[in-house]
Amino acid sequence: QVAVKRIKQTSRNALVGAMEVVVMSALLKDLTINKQHLLTLIGWYLGDKHLYVVTEFISGGNLLDYLQSLNANAGQEKESKGEGEEEYHKQLLQFNSFVSQIASGMSTLESKQIQHRDLAARNILLTQDHQIKIGDFGLSRPDGSSFTFGCISTRWTAPEVLEKEANFTLRSDVWSFGVVVWEIYSLGGLPYSDVPSRELLTRLRRGRRLDPPCDTPSRMKRLMG
Fold first, then answer.
1. Is the pTM of this model over 0.85?
2. Catalytic residue among 48, 65, 118, 211, which?
3. Which residues belong to any copy of the Protein kinase domain (predicted)?
4. Hey, how many other C-beta atoms are within 10 angstroms of the C-beta on 211?
5. Which of 72, 126, 141, 219 has its CA 20 to 30 A from that of 183?
């Protein structure tokens, strides 16, 4: 099975789709890197005034939906206290695995000097056995590129990039990674939900940061910055 993304050539997304093909093709050709946690390009086709991007099919949906489904079920009472504690520890192990897999995928991109620029739980896919696949490379650029196109995701974006989009570096992805870690332990919460997007940069300048959710392990709190 494969997934096919159909992009109209005359649409604003045409350049985003083309960049996705460029980045994924470069990763596919490099046999020296570990691509286990990156979405794999199968091929692409240009015709009928559309760009068709063909990737592997990931059947488990995206990470954000999965986390929010856990949140929806969090209030359901367990039959016993022991069962609840067991499920809690299983969940922590799974979350630790998610963080490790995402870090592995982002490390691969860094090794190729590629900025993702749109890392968020909604852009991370899950296989049926909960293996991570980072996708959505349409905003990705080689490190050092000042070329910008597309809408940035304010709540996941590093302060220096909110100041000026051309400031994006590989370290800016590290900030986004910290926000994704927060998403995981908040069960798909909205970062800075109490702050309007237009005011976020001002708050960040004043030192505002995400508050780690309850029960977040100490070492994961440090990743959230």
1. yes
2. 118
3. 1-225
4. 12
5. 141
